[in-house]
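Q: Is it fine to ask for two folds in a single conversation?
A: Yes, each is treated on its own. Send the first.
Q: Here.
A: Result:
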Amino acid sequence: MAAPKGTLWSRDGHTEGKHLVLEEYLKAWFPILGKFNGRILFVDGFAGPGRYAGGEEGSPVVAMRVLAEHGAAIGAEVVFQFVEERADRAEHLQKLVDQWLPRLPNRTKVYVLTDEFESVMTKVREDLEASNGRMAPALVMADPFGVKGIPLKVFRGVFENPKCEVYVSFMWSDMNRFLGTPEFEPNLDEMFGTADWRGAKDLDGDDRRRFLYDLYRTQLKNAGAKHVLRFNLYKGNRLKYSVFFATGHPLGSDRMKRAIWKVAPFGDFSFRSGASDQMVMLGVAEPDLTVLADALHGRFRDAGPVSMEDIVEFVQSDATIFHEGHLRTQLKSMEQEGRIEVAPETRTKHFCYPSGSRISFVPPIPSLFGPEGPP
C-alpha cells in the first residue's frame, strides 16, 4: 500500500473491518487485563494522525474511545503509546489526545511519540533489560503502509514478557508485487526473521500466498507466540492484506476469535469493500458448527474421558476458528446424536457441561456394508 503524502487521507472499507475487530477486542481486553494488573499498555506503532479525511476514527481514537465508554471498573493504570514518525501527523494526533484526556479514567497516561516503531520498541527492551524488569501486559499494534519497520526481532522482544500480544498487518498485495525486487529483500529478511521467504519466488498465486502466510505464522510462533490467528481484508475480490494476531494465552486467542466472529459472523474471516469502498461481509445463512463437532471428535476420540477444561482450552486455542461461546451448543447436539458420553457423576443434569465434567468422544460405528453403504 503506497503511503499517502498528506497529513490526512481517505479511509477504505478494509481498514474499517480491521478497526471494528480492534474495537471489539479492546472491549474485552481492557476489563480483563485491567482487573488483575496494576498497569496495562496499548502501543500503536504506526499511529497516524488519529482521524481520516472523512472524519472517521483512526486506531488511537478507537482505543481511547473504547476505554472512555467502558462501563466496567478498570483499576489498572492504562498507558497509551502512540508512535508516529511524521511530525505533522503526530501534531494532529496530539490535538485529538488533548481533547480526549478529560474523558479518560484518572489513571490514564497518553504519550504521542514522534519516532519510528522499531526505535521505540528497541529502547523499551533495552531499558527493561537494564532494570531487570518486564513489560506490563501489552497489546502492540503494528500497521505499516508496507513491510518496512516491523522486524520480527521486535515482536520476539514483546513475547519475552508475559501477557503481551501483537496485532500486525501483513501487507500481502505489496509483498506479492515486489517480491523479486532486490531493494525489497532486506525488509522481508527482517520482517520474517529469516531468508526462507525466498522460497516463494518460484511459486505463483495461492501457492505463493499459502507459503508466505504459513511461514509468517511459523515465525511468530518461533518468536514466542503460542496462538496465532489471522483475518483477511479485500478490496472487491482482491486480497489487499491480512492481520495477524499473536498471543501467549488461549484466553487472548478466544477473545480475539469472538471479536472477529462479531464482525464476520459466518466464520468467513474475510472483510471486503465493494465498488463503493464500503465494507460488506459475505457468508452463508448461518455458521456451520458441524465443523467444530468434527474438530472435537478428531482431537479427542482416542483420548478416553476428557476434562471439560481440556476441551475448552482446545476450542479457545488457534487450533480451531471457533470460540468458547460455540462449544456447549455443539456438545449438546453431539450428545443428542450419540457422539459423546458424559460421566453422570460429573454433572447434575442432562445436557449441561460444567467445569469438572468428564466427556468421552464415541468412535463412529462401522457400517456392515463398508464405506459405500448398503447395496
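Q: Second one now.
A: Result:
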Amino acid sequence: MLKKTITTLLLSVLSLLAVAQNDMLTAYRNAIPGGYQFWVYAPEEYCIEPEPIPLVVFLHGASLRGRDLEKVRKYGPLQAINMGRPIPALILAPQNPSGSWNPEKIDQVVEWTKEHYQVDASRIYVLGMSLGGYGTLDYAGTYPHKVAAAMALCGGSTLRNKQGLGDLPLWIIHGTADKAVSINESKKVVEALQQTHHDERLRFDWLPGASHGALARIFYLDKTYIWLFSHSLDEEGRPVNREITIDKSDLPDAYDDIQRREDKLYIEQK
C-alpha cells in the first residue's frame, strides 16, 4: 500500500505543469498534448491517504473557452469548493480552447486522471452548463458505460444517435426564460429518448422563468452532488434517483449553507 501510494504521488509530481496548494486544499494543472489543458482538484482526505474516490468532470460554457486556465475557476465546482462547499471527490475541469466539446478529448483527460489518481471507476460523473451541457450529453451518450450519472444544464446535444443517453441516469434541466440557448435544444434530446423508448433513466425539469445564467447556481447546491453520488455503475439496472428535487426555488438560496473560507484553493508555485 505504501509503495503504491508513493508511486502515485511521484507520477503526479512529475507530470505537473503547475501545482497549487495550501494546508487545506490541493489542485494540479496539466495538459494532454494535442488535447485539453485541465485542473484536477484533490480533497484533503485524499491527499493525506489516497484511496479510490469518485470523479466529477465539469464542462464549462462558451464564455470560459480559451487558453487561460484561470478562467475555468469563474464558476462551477472549483469555485464552489473555494467558497467552502465540501465535495468529497476528485474534480476534473478541462478547458475547451475553441469550438464545441470533443467527446474523445474529454475521454483523454478522464483516462489520464484514472492513470494518475486512484479513481473509483464505477463512480465517474459529468455535469456541465450551456456549451458544457452539450459536452455533457455528447460525452455521456458516447461513453455511457463509463459515466455513472450525468447532469446537463441549459444545453443540448449534437449526437445523431442519442440512444446511448438512455443507458445511464441522466438529469436535464433548462430554464424557460433562457435567451442564450433555447429550451427547445433540451426538449429535442428528451423527445428523441422518449420516441425511441430510451427514457427509463431520464429526468428533466423546465424551471419556469429561469434565465440562462440562473442555472449556474445549481453547481453550488449540496443536493446536486448528493444526487450524482447516489448512482454507481455497479448498481443493478442503473436506476435514476427521482427522490431529490431541484427547482427554481432552490436557486436564490444556493449559497446560503456554504461556510465561506478565507484561504483560497490556488496558490501558484513557480
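Q: Anything structural to flag on that second result?
A: Two points. The chain is about 25% helix and 20% strand. The beta strands are 18-21, 26-31, 37-42, 53-59, 90-95, 119-129, 149-153, 170-175, 202-207, 268-269.
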